[in-house]
Amino acid sequence: MKHRGHSRKENLIAILTGTFIVAQGVFFLQQAHLLTGGTTGLALLLTHFVDFSFGQLYFVMNIPFYIMAWCRMNRRFALSSICCGALVSVITDNLHHFVEISQFDPVYCAVMGGMLMGLGMLILFRHNTSLGGFNVLVLYLQEKFGVSAGKLQMGIDISILLCSYVLMTPTILMLSLLGAVMLNLVLAMNHKPGRYNDGKAMAKTAD
C-alpha cells in the first residue's frame, strides 16, 4: 500500500522482497521441525496432523484477520496483506523444488529462521502492509494505543508456543522459543511508532 515517501514501484518491490525473505525463514524452521508463534506457528503445527500443506493452512487461518483489516483498517492495507499472505503461502510450498538442505543444525535453523522472518515482516511493516494474522492486530493496537508491535507480538508468540508444550519435546520447544525471540527482537528494535518521518504505519480510517 502506497504512503508518503514510497512510490508504488518501491512498495511492490518491498512486498516481493519481504514475502520471499519470510518464506526463507519458514523454510528453515520446517527443516528442523520447529514452530513459531502466530498463525505461522499454528499452521506449521497442524501440518503434522492433517493432510494439508503449510501454505494452504496458513492462508485459511489468516482469513479472519484479513476480514478484520478490511473492516477496521484501510482497505488498501487489507488487500496488500492478502497478497502478502498468498505470496508467502505459495513461495513456502514450492521452495523445496529449488532448495534442498541435506545437513543442518537446529540451533542455526531457529536463529536464522526467526531473524529472516522478522526482517521480512519489518520490510512489509515499513511499506504499510503485513502478512495478516496477529500482525494485523498488533499493528492496529500500535496505531491506536502506541503499544510496541514487536513486544506485543513477542508476548502472543511465546504464549502460543507455551500452549503447544504438550505436543513438543522440550528441545523443540526451547529452540522454537529461541526462533520466536529472534523474530520479535528484530521487530521490537526496529519498528516503533514515530521513529520514521515518511508517514504513519497505516491509515486510521477505511477508504
TrEMBL record:
The chain crosses the membrane at residues 12-30, 42-65, 105-125, 160-187. Coiled coil: none annotated. It is found in: Cell membrane. It is a multi-pass membrane protein. Keywords: Cell membrane, Membrane, Transmembrane, Transmembrane helix. Its main location: membrane. PANTHER family: UPF0750 MEMBRANE PROTEIN YITT (PTHR33545:SF5), UPF0750 MEMBRANE PROTEIN YITT-RELATED (PTHR33545). This is YitT family protein.
